[in-house]
Amino acid sequence: MTDLAAPRAAAPAARRRRPLLRFVLRRLAAAIATLFVVSILIFVGTEVLPGDAASAVLGRTASPEQLAEMRAAMGLDRPAHERYLDWLGGLLTGDLGNSAAGYAAGGESPIWDEIRPKIVNSFILAAITALLMVPLALVLGILAAMRAGRPLDHAISVSSLAIISLPEFIIGSLLILVFFSWLDVLPPVSLIPPGTSPLAEPKALVLPVLTLLGASLAASIRMVRAGMVETLNAEYVTMARLNGLAERVVVGRYALRNALAPSVQVFAQNIQYLVGGIVVTEYLFNYPGLGKELVDAVAIRDVRAVQVVALLIAAFYILINIVADLLVVLLVPKLRTQA
Amino acid sequence: MNAARLRFVRTPTGLVGSLLLAAVVAVALLGPLFAPYAPDEPVGVPFSGPAEGTPFGTDFLGRDVLSRVLWGGRSVLALAGLATLLAYAGGIAIGLAAGYSRSLLDPVLMRAADVMLSFPALLFLLVLVTGAGTSKAVLVIGVALVQMPLIARIVRAATLEQSVRGFVEAAVARGERTSAILRREILPNIAGPIAADVGLRFTYAIILVASVNFLGLGLQPPAADWALIISENRSGLTLNPYVILVPAALISLLTISVNLVGDAIARSLGISTARRRLVR
Known about the structure:
The structure holds two protein chains of two kinds.
Chain A: H1 2-17, H2 19-48, H3 53-58, H4 64-74, H5 80-92, H6 100-104, H7 111-146, H8 151-164, H9 168-182, H10 202-232, H11 235-242, H12 247-285, H13 290-299, H14 303-331
Helix pairs in contact in A: 2-14, 7-8, 7-10, 7-12, 8-10, 9-10, 9-12, 10-12, 11-12, 12-13, 12-14, 13-14
Chain B: H1 2-10, H2 12-34, H3 65-71, H4 73-100, H5 105-116, H6 121-132, H7 136-163, H8 166-173, H9 178-186, H10 191-214, H11 226-232, H12 242-268
Helix pairs in contact in B: 1-12, 2-3, 2-12, 4-5, 4-7, 4-10, 5-7, 6-7, 7-10, 8-9, 10-11, 10-12, 11-12
């Protein structure tokens, strides 16, 4: 009898011993639940709303018989919940289905083969931008905060407020105008032959990266500055200054650490924001990535492809959130007991 | 509120922003009255540069760029404006309901908002277009839906704070109806946090509407729309840069001035928008 009672009594202790593991598991469970709801939303948005993938493939001239035949071939003649469960089952077992573009061409072409290289291309674009954004935002944001209220701060704050208001396609178009039309040093479209990595064509990457950097960097600078200004006004910072420590030490050793934790969430938000911006940027530069694939699929109403790409982007977005939460918890041990 | 109004006029960003905004809105609304040609009238060779009668040259179909730009501002303002109004109507209603009801309604509405915010706004719009097709109604409703959760969150937080105040409890004790309490007691007291956000929400409504139009998934040709003009003339950028520059400048001026005005409103209310979440 005592054998049975012992594990129960030990459970709370184990809970206390592994707070980090529990935290990660809980976040993962919440993420999977969210992704499940998102998958339903995507399915309902694309398949249950009026509009029909078969007629999108065949065009307006199709006869009712042809339509019925295509609907049967694409599996559209079954009830919605059955199709959803089928699709979900396929996703979980790695079968993403065939694209409508393939049906239009007369055969079946698996979506996975089409999007695999594009995932890599988009990831490269986002990773380079993020790697440039984080240090630049930290330096400029902290600089503005240290000079709060002085000309340098005003220059950084006003220009970031202006840039933050610009859509990516405007920033990108203006960059093309300057660097292609006038200076003729960079290409206006990212010509990356299928099968080669964008890293082999560094010139093609410059303008897309700069475009994405524009809006996300400006937003991060504003947020880092706000956090740093708040920290610099804290009592312990005043105390450190009163003790006669050099400003360099006050900022570097005391303020920075405490401003860093909120900054991680700021960067997570802006990397997520980048995920949205990447769609427009890839379309503008004809960059062969997931975003361009998504826009093309929406334009021809390739429902299967839209569903898969949208779910992939949503999954990536949610993943960034978990990673950011984890980083914050690692930086601030106090938070491990909460959430 | 009067002191805040005074502070707003005194901030340089508020003044500059208001003047710029008035200028762009005037161009957008009154432009068609001054357009020399109809927006779909071919007047010359495609992508020709500035000439007599066509100061900004022609576009890819040989239409007058100046005339198309003068016609193309109304759609941006109308679609983004309608979407923002709809977002606020829905967001305030949801936020009040969630914040004031001490029932299951609150967590249910807020979890729904969390799900909406768990993927990019543009992705939501593209999924919606795939299912419902390209139309103005889809664009307006879609942009309103992605903005609603953020507004609802702010309204809910402000409502929670107010609903425990003495004057609200007094109104409850007087036996007033819930709708009257929300309208007369709570709404006037949460106007500040709501107003602080309007500029940012309108800016992102404009950016989203323009981005979807740019992707070719919103308004369809031959509509004259600033974002669509940029999109359809990209290939002629080198031949006639004005066809890109002029609409790009107008969209930029519009979003920058709206953001400046919004920032000045927030500052004059003593609220910082630097950490407000962006939507795209």
